[in-house]
Amino acid sequence: MKTKLITSLRGAWAGFLLAGFVVLSAGCVVRGGGGVVYSEAPYYDYYYYPEANVYFYPSGRLYYWRDGEHWRSGRRVPSRYSFHEGRREPLRLRTREPWTEHHR
Questions:
Q1: pTM passes above 0.70
Q2: Is 72 left (phi over 0), alpha (psi -120 to 50) or beta?
Q3: Alpha-carbon distance 22 to 82, whole Å?
Q4: Once rounded to an integer, what is the mean pLDDT over residues 15-39?
Q5: Is the separation of the CB atoms in 93 and 43 below 8 Å?
Q6: Which whole number is the average pLDDT over 43-54?
Q7: DSSP characters for the chain?
Q8: Inter-residue contact 78 to 65 (CB < 8 Å)
Q9: Per-residue pLDDT tens for 60-101?
Q10: Could you tell me which residues come within 8 angstroms of residue 13 by beta carbon, excluding any fewer than 6 positions away?
Q11: In this predicted model, what pLDDT tens digit does every residue of 52-62 receive, in sequence order?
């Protein structure tokens, strides 16, 4: 009886450790014996309209545009912006804030 209990506890502990490893590896930082390892960040796909300086995030159906010194977002761009679907550039960025990569 005692042996079965110890075996069950070991199995439960192993499952707990495995679940913890899965949760940690899904994030950005995994701490291992050799130091900190940075895992691959997710990518976000955008369309960029260079003639209007506008980004579109199709998964969230959001546009991002520059308004003076600030970046704005919304489901529609203001009417002063005009751009053509055929002139968009697909982008894959590692951020949900495309304007932070605008300098590139």
A1: no
A2: beta
A3: 46
A4: 45
A5: yes
A6: 94
A7: -HHHHHHHHHHHHHHHHHHHHHHHHHSSEEEETTEEEEPPPPPEEEEEETTTTEEEETTTTEEEEEETTEEEEESS--TT----GGG-EEEEES-S-GGGGTT-
A8: yes
A9: 999 999 999 999 999 999 999 988 888 999 999 988 888 887
A10: none
A11: 999 999 999 99
Tokens at residue 91, please? 């982008």
- 């490893």: which residue's tokens? 21
Residue type, 61: R
Mean pLDDT of the chain: 74
| Cα gap 3→6, rounded to integer Å | 5
